[in-house]
Amino acid sequence: MKLYNILFLCTHNSARSILGEALASTHPSGKLRGFSAGSTPGTSVNPIAADIAVELGMDRALLKSKSWDVFGEPNAPKMDFIVTVCDNAAGEVCPFWPGNPVTAHWGFPDPSRVQGTDIEKRAAFNEVMNGLKKRIDILAEMPLDKLDSMSLKNIHAQI
Fold first, then answer.
1. Is 83 helix (H, G, I), strand (E, B) or coil?
2. Given this model, what pLDDT does residue 86 score?
3. How far apart are CA 15 and CA 17, in angstroms?
4. Catalytic site positions
């Protein structure tokens, strides 16, 4: 079975894109390998996002905020799919992605901006995680070798 690489992009690569990477990489279908990056990455991954990723089965040592430029380099893994998960990243001029990957935007509000108790903050992260999980579940059930950008975008519209 072919393993499909999916890159989740968000401006700071600290929360939503990290959750996407973790969900794809630990998806029970075994069809996906997740990656994440940002246009202006931060210095660290949000601790709540990191905790959720670890709970999903990711190795905490692999969770790093990184620039999307890394994935445009000649020796970078070839991406099959690229999904922006924040509106800022969706509106930015992205680098050239080798291999002509299928692209889409699945926008989610930034859970790291939620003010309140730890329970309220964690609930915001869980909401984004659940939204991403639904979309990734649908993606994994599709004929991935035949998927185009419109089909990938429609996954977001189905939810």
1. strand
2. 85
3. 6
4. 10, 86, 94
